[in-house]
Amino acid sequence: MNVYPFIEAEKQGDHNVKRACELLEVSRSAYYAHRASGPSARAQRDAELTAKIIDIHDDSSQTYGSPRVHHELLDQGERCSRKRVARLMRAADRHGRMPRRWKTTTIADPAAPHRPDLIGRDFAIDPDRPAALNTRWCGDITYVYTWQGWLYLATVIDLASRRVVGWAVADHLRTDLIAEALTDAANRRRPLPGVLFHSDRGCQYTSTQYANLARDLGVTLSVGRRGQCWDNAVAESFFATLKTELIHRRAWPTRKAATSAIFNYIEGWYNTRRRHSTLNYLSPATFESTPATTHEQVA
């Protein structure tokens, strides 16, 4: 056990160094020799790591916790444990941001035709054997408050890579909003006919207009059960992350400002750089570029 910090604390408190050394069975000469020798190699290493941790944390807009910071350090060639990273983050008063609890906002249409749940909460990813891209998508709508009124965001997410492959915003909740998001995804990814799109039972997703668009795009529709947010957990999780890391951190005077920030978050951060725990702490773009994923996509 290193007793020198205790003696140093006594000295800084204008207490008797001689008495402290006697109680801790350390000679005064050894204490002063240690004091003159400067910080230990471990302390120097901690200082180096802390500086890099702060840079990584700031680069993530101060959203990363110790697991993501740790993986970022590993990619930079730094060898250290996650527990050490967590300790240094606590010492530097750096913390990750935690999502809030989900709130159900779906408005179902009781007269809508019945569609089956073709996902059955099977959202799992095996990083060593990734599923084919562009075979299973999911999506939902969320609300963003601005001083001009509500802004509504609709998304389409590839379940194989958690990448947001299509999205749209509007000042209304008409079916046109989710139609634009699905069209955006289809134009970007060019999936083969039969790609599955899973959603909740919101009236927009069960509308005839949306069913006709899905048919034209070669998309098979799947819906979860009424009132079961976990049936669309991936879409809900993305919105929780978006709101924690971006939306709830400031006020939005205009819809245009919120839209610009959402664009930068999705296209410049979440899809391309943000490390995803489900993907073994790779970003969606990096995960999609792995040889196994590319092979499955081509096959």
UniProtKB/TrEMBL annotation:
It holds the Pfam family rve. InterPro entries: HTH-like_dom (IPR025948), Integrase_cat-core (IPR001584), RNaseH-like_sf (IPR012337), RNaseH_sf (IPR036397), Transpos_IS3 (IPR048020), Transposase_IS3/IS150/IS904 (IPR050900). GO terms for molecular function: nucleic acid binding. Residues 126-292 form the Integrase catalytic domain. GO terms for biological process: DNA integration. Involved in the transposition of the insertion sequence. This is IS3 family transposase.
